[in-house]
Amino acid sequence: MKGIRDFTQKRYFKVFREDRSSKVSYKVDDKCSFQKKIARHFGEMCNIEVPVVFPEEKITFTRTNTNITPAYTYDDLIKEFDINHKYYNVINNVCPDYGILLKKGLNGIKEELKKTAKDIDFIESCEDTIASIEKLVMRYIEEAKRVKNDTVVKTLSRVPMEPARSFLEGLQAIRFISSMFYLNGNYQLGFGRIDQYLIDLYHKDIDDNTISVKQAKEYITEFFISLNRDTDLYFGVQQGDNGQSMMLGGVKRDGSCAINELTYLFLEVSKELKMIDPKINLRIDSNTPRELLLLGCELTKAGLGFPQYSNDEVVIPALVNKGYSLEDARDYTVAACWEFIIPGKGLDIVNQGAVSFPYAVNEAFMDPKIKNLKDFEDRIAKNIQEQVKNILVNREQYLLPSPLVSLFFDDSIKMGEDITKVAKYKNRGIHGAGSANAADAMYIVENLIELGQFEKIQELRNKVNTNFAGSEDYRQLLLGSDKKVGNANEKVDLGLRKLFEWFADACDKYSTDMCKIRPGSGSAQFYIWLTNKMNDWIIEPIVGATADGRLEGEPLSSSLSPASGVKVNGLISVLNSFSNINYNRIMNGGPITVEFSPVTFNSREGLEKLADVIKYFVKIGDQQLQLNVLDYRVLCDAMKHPERHSNLIVRVWGWSGYFCELAPEFQRQIINRHRYSL
Questions:
Q1: CA dihedral (366, 368, 374, 375) positive or negative
Q2: What's the Cα-to-Cα distance from 541 to each of 356, 363, 461, rounded to whole Å?
Q3: DSSP letter string over 568-590?
């Protein structure tokens, strides 16, 4: 296994990469339906893959084609759907139900589909899709035979076509099918609650003495290593932003505790392996065992940037409040980063755009006619509403059908229709970006309004309009104030709560019974994009310098975090600041992001204190938490000498990546975050 691990960590897998799209031979018939066109194109993507099997591995799949071409042209979309004003997108940021795969296998799913005649074209497209997977499985078996890997031959002779009978078969089935989604152009589909999907197979093997706990860990290790062999091929915003995320722990659909042996084993393997994938999320509540929290802290200490913690006591009621059934809410996982999604049921578009809170505050602040608090706040609320409307109108998304994804959604199987037609949940999510910068600026302006110091307000306007040119001392006074988000200042944090309430009000205004608009507290990539228009896809307003002292072009505060350079009074004060948000209404997800210096973990006492803090996070009703370790000197050296730090891992936003593989603007922002690390 060491050989496979070294091969992966040194990125030698790139030797298998080639753009094979020119080798696609299938010419689609104009009379072919859109669903069948997608299915048959998927077959071509499978056909041009070259099976790679290592003689010593037990879990296999390595992607080789670097170019997943679309199955359609824009003209095809217009012809098929007769609407040219929509923003077309493939299904992404959702979670299939891998439990269906493990229990039924692809052949079992096919047999169930045959029982319904609702949409014959859809059923035939699904059958074509399954046939394409089976052909690729057979080619992998032939390659395994060639390199004399009997284990892979035996495993793939069973899965994913038939139900999994062992823990190893379960892991192999998940690995193979997860790769198929990317061959189909569906990206950032997470693994969901994998400790729940696999626990019965694990118990069976342990009880039968088929495997030992040590062997189970070895299988998990191989599974993780296999995932890391494809990290360069996934097309997120940055390399590493690939959606290979899993959820552990929490409660079952009946409300009972879901923590099991695999919850611990997955965390232990991740700690020992120290790779960026899979990204691990951990569901916790007030009853979570301390040993599990301490194990999570060990991963933080290792510098992985995960697990990300989700508070069941906050998340589940919020989902129910938004119209999700209690049983489904208890079964939640996250999409690619942190957005809450129901596996096998939710087709929510959770990343439709972002509201710029700093722009909303700036837009009100710059109006010299604003003379009182009510007008100022009404103007901010109105602008937030306008931004929400702009996103919904100008980035109205239409999800394209996917026979492949539909195979792992129970409603599609039962109803015999594509998941885009029959999904139980089809809501929309919008991020709320730069909340700390906005609240800090809002406090400064409102304090001046209350004091009637309108000449000073005009002076501040002038300095913001000139990007604080010649006013660095003045700017440093703004930055140096302790009245900032993160310091548990009642008045500042009230402004933070108001911003999110106005955001929730705006989303409610445009919600319907069929489609709820979900406001979130995360910023994703928008903490950079909203300060510097980096591509034509951005329709959100770009904000310049802000009244809190932030310069034009500088990144906004990421998700829920203090603004860059803010001196906070400690982790507890940060958690207290963000506990003022009404998470029952703000439920698209978005974590409190905290940066630590490595000295925090110099002793066991540091881990114990961090576990206490996580318990406190649950107690005060915060929603999500992610912790990162930053060593300023190491990060700076990595920018100068990347060859020395090829495996240096950092948390970027809702995912972890290799620091040296990030674009410079993201590297600089991460280094800047050290300025408020604890």
A1: negative
A2: 7, 10, 19
A3: -S-HHHHHHHHTTS-TTT--S--
pLDDT tens for residues 606-627? 899 999 999 999 999 999 999 9
pLDDT band with cut points at 50, 70 and 90 for residue 630: confident
Residue 236 has pLDDT above 70, yes or no: no
**The length of the chain, given as a count of residues:** 678
Distance between CA atoms of 527 and 544, rounded to whole angstroms?
13
pLDDT, tens digit (0-9, with 9 covering 90-100), for 407-437: 999 999 999 999 999 999 999 999 999 999 9
Q: Give the CA distances from residue 370 to residues 328, 387, 544, 548, in Å, rounded to whole numbers and listed in that order.
A: 46, 20, 20, 18
What distance in Å separates the CA atoms of residue 190 and residue 229, rounded to the nearest whole number? 16
pLDDT score of 79 more than 80: no
With beta carbons less than 8 A apart as the criterion, state whether 361 and 445 touch.
yes
Q: What is the largest CA-CA distance in the chain?
A: 82
CA distance 14 to 8: 9
Are the C-beta atoms of 180 and 232 separated by less than 8 Å? no
107: amino acid identity, one letter? N
Q: What is the DSSP letter of 556?
A: P
Q: Residue 626 forms beta bridges with which residues?
A: 593
Q: Is the peptide bond before 591 cis (omega within 30 degrees of 0)?
A: no
CA angle 348, 349, 351 (to 5 degrees): 135
| Tens-digit pLDDT profile for residues 157-209 | 999 999 999 999 999 999 999 999 999 999 889 999 999 999 999 999 999 99
d(CA 456, CA 440): 17
Give just the sign of the alpha carbon dihedral 617, 620, 622, 623.
Answer: positive
Question: Would you say 653 and 558 are in contact if contact means Cβ atoms under 8 Å apart?
Answer: yes
SS3 content of the chain, % helix, strand, coil (to 5): 50, 10, 40
Q: What is the pTM of this model?
A: 0.95
Q: What is the CB neighbour count within 10 angstroms for residue 420? A: 18
Beta strands (DSSP E) in 570-669 are: 592-596, 624-629, 649-651, 656-658
Contact between 479 and 437 under an 8 Å Cβ cutoff? The reply is: no
Give the type of residue at 479: L
Q: Cα angle at 88 between 84 and 93, to 5 degrees?
A: 165
Please, where are the H alpha helices in 324-395? Answer: 326-330, 357-365, 373-394
